[in-house]
Amino acid sequence: MKIISFCLYGTAPLYYKGLIENIHIISKKLPDFFTYVYYGSDITEDKITNLRSLSDKIVLIATNKLGAGNMIDRLNPIKLDDTEIFFCRDADSRINDRDLWCINKFIESEKSVHCIRDSFWHKSKLMGGILGFKVKKIENLEKIREDLSKYYEYCENPEYGDDEHFLGNKIYPLIKNDLYLQTSITAFNGEEYNLIDYNNDGVNFVGNVIEFGDENKEVPKFNYYNFSVKDQVNWLISQKQFQLASHIGKTVRWDIETGTIDALFIANYYADDLQECRRLMSMYEYSSITDHVVDNCNFMFTMLKKHGYKIIGTTNLSDEPKYNEIMIYYGTFPVTHLYFPITNKVYRNAGHFNKVTHDIVKYDDCWNNLDKIYILNLEEREDRYIETMCELCKVDAPLNKVFHYKAKKTPGDGGPYVGATQNHIDVMNDIVNEGYINSLILEDDIVFSPNISQIKKDITEFFDSDYLYDICFLSASRFHKKEPHNDLLIKSKQICTTSSAYFLSNKTIQSVRDCVMEGMDLLKKTNNANLYCIDRYWSKLQEDDRVFIFKRKMAYQRPNYSNIKDTIAAYLD
Questions:
Q1: What is the pLDDT of residue 414?
Q2: Per-residue confidence at 188, pLDDT binned at 50, 70, 90?
Q3: Which residues 6+ apart lie within 8 Å of 9 measured at CB?
Q4: In 449-545, where do the E strands start and end?
Q5: Collapsing DSSP states into helix, strand and coil, what is residue 294?
Q6: Dihedral angle at the C-alpha atoms of 238, 244, 250, 253, nearest 10 degrees?
Q7: DSSP structure class, residue 330
Q8: Which of 156, 189, 191, 151 minimizes the C-alpha distance to 170?
Q9: Distance CA 224, CA 252 (A)
């Protein structure tokens, strides 16, 4: 026997009228099905008589109950030995064409239990009003029958919704492996589902409540599309149903706003839908880009690698990516949607260079002989670090060779000059320990001059000439004595240099470090920065004529607030 089962209780007309409409639908479109109605003790005899007259395939069963306890009784056909297949439905909904399409798909399937979740609000694992069974195929049939018989032990005084709690907690675990779930919106963790590939006009979703308006005209109460896409996608992400979340983003209209884009991006990232991720990122042209968005979208580069792309970093805007490359151009770029790999060309601020793992980093050949670039940066002054990274882009320096030394303020014990000198000692120790041949040390207020081609030419000549040098300054104080050396370099004879930008060599690093450490000890003992801080004391190295300054000075210290001097410094040297 084939059965459609309802319950009926209470006095609200939409249930009684709705049941009548459903009986007509069943008679017309499911003529081989019987209609079972489990009715409560508050249903009057005239209504019973009228229902009985509507069809010769209607079976009316009195429950002798009031209220929500009637809802569980519509599952009773599962206890009948002659039941082949049956479906439970709500009287205030309609078995419409979308529902019939779902029913037929279930009948064609090999599964024994049917569940439709066709609304944002369908968050129960099993719902008594959208449920079906191929009774003779249910593996745990006897256990299900036994549990249903004990319903009132579970719910002594049933209230609205208790039947769904019971179905979810007691019945669902018994049938979940043989569940034919149809949904385009809601699936729990681990569930397999079948998309409802039937026209959705917003009000024909399965389970919609149908009210009666003027002249008894049927009026759907809810619209399928009136829900928060962001909330639903985030819920599906929590259930690890990434493909379904992706499907929602592609099939439901939603307002372009950061939270929704971000949620859909996460879902599509885990669904491994590269094309959709890139489409979503393009929408940030019209929405807020938060730090969270930037950090999340950095995962795209890992995804692109998985799909066979190489990530190339460069500071040269004339570089062109190949078909399988993502070219990230670094410089003084603002954060926009172009920060993300929407196309093969990405434009990023150099301060975010280390947020991406690159396969190749391109830079000018003049830097080939340089092993490391140290940026000495007070930890709280991230602004200066970003500015210095952008300055390195101007000269096409190897950003992948940069070490960000994060200095901390030195409490007492000699004050800021001790701290500043210690920073230089620390990086010199690192150079020695790592065995670097040539290194560049930069303080975080350096600015390169605009004659970029000359800078590159001079650096190339410097390394090609393989000078023996203690220190070679890219920027230098405009004060004090200097002496000629050749067309590239001059000798420093200054009583005070700077320490803002200089090359060091492994050939002489030990003597330079020893000198600075000696000055440090004296600085701590005397607190006399005018004699013993780094840019004063290492002047003694000039005696061997191996402390140089580039003749065409390449850089100067940016005019800005000095944490050491607690004032604005604007020497332009």
A1: 59
A2: very high
A3: 15, 39, 40, 42, 43, 63, 65, 66, 67, 70
A4: 471-473, 481-484, 489-493, 501-505
A5: helix
A6: -60
A7: E
A8: 151
A9: 10
For residue 287, the surrounding DSSP H or E stretch is none
Neighbours of 37 (CB within 10 A): 23
How many CB atoms sit inside 10 A of residue 124's CB?
19
pLDDT at 234 over 60: yes
Q: DSSP of 368-411, one letter per residue?
A: TT--EEEEEEETT-HHHHHHHHHHHHHTT--GGGEEEEEE----
Query: What pLDDT was estimated at residue 277?
Result: 97
| Pairing mode of beta strands 325-331, 113-117 | unpaired
Tell the residue number behind the tokens 């079906």, with chain if given. Answer: 132
Q: How far apart are CA 312 and CA 362, in angstroms?
A: 7
Q: Where do the domains of the chain lie, and which CATH numbers do they carry?
A: 2-220 (3.90.550), 246-360 (no CATH), 366-569 (3.90.550)
CA–CA gap between residue 293 and residue 260 (Å, rounded): 11
Asked whether 133 and 75 are in contact (CB, 8 A), the reply is no
Q: What average pLDDT does this structure show over 119-127?
A: 97
Q: Could you identify the residue written with the tokens 């409490």? A: 411
Which residues, in sequence order, are CB contacts of 217 under 8 Å at separation 6+?
none
Strand 402-407 to 372-378 pairing: parallel
Sign of CA dihedral 465, 471, 475, 479: negative
State pLDDT tens for residues 491-532: 999 998 999 999 999 999 999 999 999 999 999 999 999 899
User: Picking from 46-50, 105-109, 477-481, 515-519, which range would have the lowest pLDDT averaged per residue?
Assistant: 477-481
DSSP state of 272: T
Those residues with Cβ within 8 angstroms of residue 484's Cβ, 6 or more apart along the chain or in another chain: 490, 491
- Dihedral Cα 341, 344, 350, 352, nearest 10 deg: 20
What span, in angstroms and rounded, lies between the C-alpha atoms of 323 and 556? 40
Kindly report the pTM of this predicted structure.
Answer: 0.88
Q: Which tokens is 268 given?
A: 């599509």
Q: Which two tokens stand for residue 526?
A: 């005397």
Place 139 in a pLDDT band, splitting at 50, 70 and 90: very high
Q: Average the pLDDT over each of 87-96, 372-381, 415-424 and give the range with the smallest value.
A: 415-424
Our separate counts of H helices and E strands in the chain read 19, 25
Q: What is the mean pLDDT of the chain?
A: 95
Q: Is residue 216 very low, low, confident or very high in pLDDT (cuts 50, 70, 90)? A: confident
* Distance (Å, whole) CA 206 – CA 226: 15
Q: Are 447 and 555 in contact (CB under 8 A)?
A: yes
- Dig out the tokens for 156 from the structure: 């002594």
Distances (CA, A) of 412 to 423, 521, 523: 16, 15, 13
Question: What's the average model confidence in pLDDT over 274-298?
Answer: 96
SS3 533: coil
For the stretch 159-177, pLDDT in tens is 888 999 999 999 999 999 9
Which strand (E) or helix (H) includes residue 314? strand 310-314
Check: CB of residue 396 under 8 Å from CB of residue 364: yes
